[in-house]
Amino acid sequence: MSNVRDNVEGGRRVGPGTIYGTLQRLEDVGLVQALPSDGRRRSFELLPAGRTALEAEALRLTRLAELVRDRRVLPEEG
Amino acid sequence: MASEIGVGRPRPRFPWSTRSYRLLLRLLPGSFRRRFADDLSADFETLLSEATRGRPLFGWIRCWSEILLDLAGAVPREHWRVWRSPYDQRRLAARSSQSERTHFRRFTVRSILFDLRHALRALRRAPVFSLVTVIILALGIGANTAIFTLVRAVLLRPLPFEQPDRLVLMHESLPAMNFPIFPFSAPDYLDLERQQEVFADLGAFVVKRVELSGVETPETVDSASMSSSLFTTLGVEPALGRVWSPQEDAPGHDVLVLDYDFWQERFAGSPDVLGSTIRLDRDPYTVIGVMPASFDFPPRGLPVNGQPASLFTPTAWEPFQLENRGMMHNLSAIARLADGVTLERARADLETIADRVQDAYGAAGRAPGVELSFPITPLRDAVVGEVRTPLLLLLGAVGLVLLVVVANVANLTLSRAAARQSEMAIRAAIGAGRGRLIQSLLLESLLLAGLGAALGVALAQLAVRLAIRLLPGAIPFSERVRLDLPVLLFTLGLTVLTAVLCGAAPLFAAGRRRLEALLRSAVGRSTGSAARQRLQRVLVVTTVALALVLLVGAGLLGRSFNRLIGTEAGFDADRVLTMALTLPPEAYPEAEGVRSFVRTLRERVAALAGVEHTSMTTSLPLTFGERRSFYPEGADPTAVRPSVTVTWVDGPFFEALGIPLEEGRLFDGSERADGEQVVLVNRTLARRIWPEEDVVGQRIRWRMPGSENAWLTVIGVVADVNDGPLGSEPNPHVYVPYQQFADAELDMAANVRSPWGRQFQLVVASETDPSSLINPVLAEVRELDRSLPVSAVRTMEQIVGEGVAPQRASALLLGAFAAIALVLAGVGLYGVLAYAVTQRRREIGVRVALGAERSSVVGMIVRQGLGLVLVGLAGGVIAALGLSRLMAAVLYQTAAWDPVTFVAATAVLVLAALLASWLPARRASRVDPATALRTE
């Protein structure tokens, strides 16, 4: 959870309400699915559609990053 | 990706904070809270413990603010999700069952917006196709909008009076004496008014030109003298002030009501005008009211008195007018049928009254065979009767033009569909259903039709304004001709219809199975392609047939118009200037004063440089003048005889207008009111009355009530001149020297304020350009009488042109429509053949490789084109024969099946077809066999 909090949205902190809401939505559209609870922690696993979406999104972001670099829109990072 | 989430800890480290947080969680939707409440509070505790590790108070505050912000976002979001979820569930269910097709569902707002964007892009990619299509559609839709605007204003909108369907127009009629319609005299009208029992109300009116003085430039305006009851008959109220009462409708009450436009123009719409004085024919009148803008009276188009007036005055009949029957027939009457009275009953009632009125004329009125009647017509028919047929004809013609346009655009769309087969195939492959593809094609044609309509409406606006400017007086209620909301709705409906016919109809026509093939097939081989080509041929054939109908229609009207203007009107219109002037009785009370003014003005104008002949006359050719009845010496005075037109002339009238003398001599200027009374007659009169005898030396006498009239000796016969519209049968005509106009008659006219005998047309035959004489002549008039207005300054050629302007406009419009249809037919044929050549490249290549002559290739393609055209021509000739009969009413000396027109129209179409076929044929003949065979 702290992982999520620290890495999402460019360093902005994300609260639990937002995180569980997002998980619920991902589950609604069939990208993730909750695993049977072991009583202590609630776990979600990525479904195939979720993986595809993730890959597509990752690809999109990579391309965007490349585009930004190629066009020299922003100063390159170290 | 599962994160570290702690649940079920034995003891909260922050009992108060945790309890508060759980309370806040109640704001979340139940389902969400029940599922995640424990996880949320566990995470909350973790966060709080982490945050308060270093600096407890600061950390606690920061953690709580973050949590509150988080909840502020999450609470509405989750509620929205739960609220939406039934819909989302349905959507998901649909999606899973339909899989990828969901994206291509039709008729949703999103799909329509998507297709619209797609259509815009597609049209931008094919700019030539788009531009051509939009222009063609604009012509079709614009022409329809323009003509419909006219039809609506003139034929469809009710007359601007109360319950206009109950209004009728009445005149007198003596068919046996060549008076099919003539106006009422005051006594006849009053008899009718007193005796009738079928009308709720009725009123009489007459339009006359009056002189408006006391203004910068003297001028004449049209003024309507109306009985006070006419306002109630029509059901109109003044916009300002009042109208006159029945008591004021008598001599001595010089009151006046203004027309709205006149009030706006002359008095800037000021209410102060009430009570002010206006001088008409140099008499003072007091303004008592202003009519509303919608009151446009009398309506244009009436057979008599059909000239909208600027001023309204009481009829104020003088005792002389009321006592003398059979004189001064100038009134039109409008009546409102009483409740429950039919037109037939009113006619029957009027027949009885007409009988009694005829009796009142005494023995002279009871000639055998002479039957006076009071014919009535619904006012609407009287107003629009003349223009109904031409307007409906044009409406039909533009309807045909639209069909040609639709067929053509459908053809273009089909060709384009062929070019876009791969695109359609791809869309169908990734799940677009038939409906969705049709939707997208339909939207594309809607977009095209919409653009065409926008351009078309702009064109129509221009066309309508131009029509009104070019046809003054020919269009009743022209001020109501507007492109208003109903017209725009009509255009909208037309646009949608056009779009559907152009875009989707070909697809539907192809049939369901073929459609699938049409949309998905690969180029050139499938049944879809064959179906499309068949459809395109049908469209070309249809276009050719419609174009032929329009060409025949235009040809017939053109020939009729040519015959009309080629008619021997009996006079020479070249280099003749005319202008109208009326001497007001107030300023010219004495007969001698009038006669000397006429003589003096004529002599002074004759002395101007460049003037060949000058004459004054009471009526010009092509206009109806005074009508009288007469009898020749030695014949029964009461026998039935046609009435004659009477024209009073001063000076060399016949020389100025080039009217040839056929027998005897012309007037020599020595004629006097107290000398021997002489007249000239026209050929028609001479032939009817004295078919065998010598005409010169015969004597006639006017059949007029009152004093015994003098015998008039015929001194010569002149050629027939049209005194009605060009093309009408010449009327028997008598010309009288103006100097014979009797003192008593001029005095009488002055007494009843009639312009009779004081209304002149100055006719000036020029050696050069007649318009160069306008200013010198006007200067002469001003010298004689500074305040005398001159109106209707026109050349005789203009008068002739104005008379046939409606026919000219009809012929030109139909010609333009036919030209559009011809071009479109050619373009359609060209398109089909050009495509066929592309398709048959390989075959042609083989033929050429095997030794076919280039000329035989050309012949093959041209034959294919002509084959289509011949089928179209056959259909077109049959349709044209059927439809042209509807035109018979508007044709002049031209048969509806006029062979010259049919042959010419067919020849023109064949020529156009040859041209349209030859271009692709030439391309076919240049096919290089090697290239053609290699590329396949």
Please estimate the helix content of chain A. Answer: 55-70%
Number of beta strands of chain A: 2
Strand content of chain A: 5-15%
Mean pLDDT of chain A: 75
pLDDT below 50 for ≥5 consecutive residues: which ranges of chain A? none
Can you give the helix content of chain B as a percent range? 40-55%
Regarding quaternary structure, how should these chains be classified?
A: heterodimer
Give the C-alpha Rg of chain A: 16 Å
Characterise the protein shown here.
The complex is a heterodimer of chains A (78) and B (936). A two-stranded antiparallel sheet of chain A has the order 1-2. The longest helix of chain A is centred in the last third of the chain and has 24 residues. Chain A has 78 residues and is mainly α. The model of chain A has no long low-confidence stretch (mean pLDDT 75). Chain B has 936 residues and is of the alpha+beta class. Chain B contains 27 helices and 24 strands. In chain B, strands 13, 14, 15, 16, 17, 18, 19, 20, 21, 22, 23 and 24 form a 12-stranded mixed beta sheet that branches. The N terminus of chain B is likely disordered.
Q: What's the short version?
A:
The complex is a heterodimer of chains A (78) and B (936). By secondary structure, chain A is mainly alpha-helical. Chain A contains three helices and two strands; from the N terminus they run H-H-E-E-H.
Blueprint of the fold:
The complex is a heterodimer of chains A (78) and B (936).
Chain A: H1 2-7, H2 16-28, E1 32-34, E2 44-46, H3 48-71
Antiparallel strand pairs in A: 1-2
Chain B: H1 15-25, H2 30-51, H3 56-98, H4 109-125, H5 127-156, E1 167-170, E2 172-174, E3 179-182, H6 186-195, E4 199-213, E5 219-226, H7 229-234, E6 240-241, E7 255-258, H8 260-267, E8 277-280, E9 283-290, E10 311-314, H9 319-323, E11 332-337, H10 343-360, E12 376-378, H11 379-419, H12 421-429, H13 434-470, H14 485-509, H15 512-520, H16 527-565, E13 576-582, H17 591-606, E14 611-617, E15 626-628, E16 630-632, E17 644-650, H18 653-656, E18 661-664, E19 678-682, H19 683-689, E20 699-702, E21 712-718, E22 733-737, H20 743-751, E23 759-766, H21 774-784, E24 790-795, H22 796-803, H23 805-839, H24 841-849, H25 854-884, H26 899-925, H27 929-935
Parallel strand pairs in B: 5-10, 7-9, 17-22, 19-21
Antiparallel strand pairs in B: 1-11, 1-12, 2-3, 4-5, 4-8, 4-11, 6-9, 7-10, 8-9, 13-23, 13-24, 14-17, 14-23, 15-17, 16-20, 18-21, 19-22, 20-21
